[in-house]
Amino acid sequence: MTSQTLDTGTPDLLATLDAGVLTLTLNRPDARNAMSRAMNQALAQQLAAAELDPAVKCIVLTGAGKGFCAGGDVKGMAAAGDGTVGALTIDEAIHVQRVNQRATAGKLFKMPKPTIAALPGPAAGAGLALALACDLRIMASTAILTTAFARVGFSGDYGGTYFMTQLVGAAKARELYLLSERVSADEGLRLGLANWVCAPDELEARTREIARRLAGGPTVAYRYMKENLNRALAGGDIDDCLDLEATHHIHCGQTEDHREAAQAFVEKRPSRAAAIRAGLRPGSPADAPPTRCPESAGCWGIFAAATPGPPALAWRPVRVQRSRARRIATARSPPAGRRERRARRPWPGRRSGRRRSDARGCIGSARRRCGRCAGRPRPGAP
């Protein structure tokens, strides 16, 4: 699928949809991606649309340039000289702020789809709150986190106190808010504020890998997982949580995601979701069940059914259950000398030599194979 650029109505927010992953980029690099009214409105609209769009499976929130988000535009507030009210009354400003917070940070937290914050640089104030509202966070090793509110005389907004307290506990949250100290990427990982830390030049690729893995997963199960977890965070009674889990668990058992994954487990093959995570396309040989060699009842070969596709995906790995170990066999054949040594020295207590990988997905015995398995040339052999 080619990447699709979405119109957000403002250059302050960029949106692209690729393979089920919606990437929202805060785009004010000259102001360290500080929030603007246009950015907040566009972000709220994109999140509301993504929640209902079946083509969107996962949301990534990131920042342009070397920063994630500096929070509110403090310079703009200082220039206006009226704090956060502007032309509104205090009551009107409070209502607007409440609606905006629920439509952005609240939506990221409660949305029934996985959300990821990718931090290429500093996240401060409300920007930190947006990152903490996401389900998962990945940071560049050069990024930092700071509440920053105390330094500019604010108490904090966008749910930062709630998210921080849930993640690090009340005592540490109080420390970080009252002192506004900077937290490095490694310290954030230790505290649980980040899930992964990587080199800055690896951030985009690592984020894409995680997002596509989630986009290929069971969407209904993800929705119920988030609802279960959010209910637990809200302090629900244990019986309420148990009842909710039972309802969701039984419902997931009726979905196509569960049926296909269970069938794949029985057939010892990757599920469609696993194939997507591995970079294979649905319908490739990774989805085909293994079949026994039809040539001879005495042959121990196992074949993977062939389907048209790119040469690299022509034959799938086959998982074989063995009495002593489990081994992933690929379509590569070991050198002939190694096969002969294995044939001369079978494993103790086994009827035959070691199972090996033969041409075109056949997994036979080094000592006992039918003529079809033994005589077939290796892929790519002259």
TrEMBL record:
Pfam families: ECH_1. The keyword Ligase does not apply. Gene3D superfamilies: 2-enoyl-CoA Hydratase, Chain A, domain 1, Lyase 2-enoyl-coa Hydratase, Chain A, domain 2. Residues 339-354 have a biased composition (Basic residues). Signal peptide: none annotated. One of its GO terms (biological process) is fatty acid beta-oxidation. The keyword Transmembrane does not apply. GO terms for molecular function: lyase activity. Residues 324-363 are annotated as: Disordered. It comes from the Bacteria. Keywords: Lyase. Belongs to the enoyl-CoA hydratase/isomerase family. This is Enoyl-CoA hydratase. It comes from Variovorax paradoxus. The lineage of its organism: Bacteria, Pseudomonadati, Pseudomonadota, Betaproteobacteria, Burkholderiales.
